[in-house]
Design goal:
The chain has 149 residues and is mostly helical. Helix content is 34%, strand content 3%. This is Photosystem II extrinsic protein U. It is found in: Cellular thylakoid membrane; Membrane.
Length: 149
């Protein structure tokens, strides 16, 4: 019985190690596209159709004022740390009351005290408002996007 157990253990270990001898590559494709060969990336790159679906909307947004100022509608809560007095209370209030149509609209949030209002007024030039981008605000990404400095 002891010998049988030893043989089964050795066999299991050898079978488990076979996974180290090869690598599998994963390929992602937009929904609805199916690929039959390993040349799929070339097919996707040459495929006709709507190329705007393949664009990175967040990278495009970085070329706007979003990349230079804190966007009240899209910025992650951690980026409000750069402005003294904003994190965490004012930052969470802004996230809860977003979206805003203009920068000045942030001054009309309910529950602001005089000190918070003064901090917001002093920093209006550091803010911008752009269209809400789902990739930046979906789930809990505005609260914790997993990027730490």
């Amino acid at each position: 019985m002891k010998r049988l157990f030893s043989w089964l253990s050795a066999l299991s270990l050898m079978i488990g190690c076979l996974g180290w001898f090869g690598t599998q590559t994963a390929m992602a494709a937009p929904a609805g596209l199916q690929f039959e060969s390993l040349a799929a990336p070339m097919i996707l790159a040459n495929a006709g159709g709507d190329q705007s679906a393949l664009r990175n909307k967040v990278s495009d947004k970085m070329t706007t004022s979003y990349g230079q100022k804190l966007d009240l509608n899209n910025t992650n809560m951690n980026l409000f740390r750069d402005i003294q007095g904003m994190y965490p209370t004012l930052a969470s209030m802004i996230i809860k009351n977003a979206p805003f149509n203009s920068v000045e609209e942030v001054l009309q949030m309910p529950g602001l005290n005089e000190k918070q209002l003064a901090v917001l007024q002093a920093n209006l030039d550091n803010f911008t408002v752009t269209e809400v981008e789902e990739a930046l605000v979906s789930g809990d990404d505005r609260i914790n996007n997993g990027i730490y400095r």
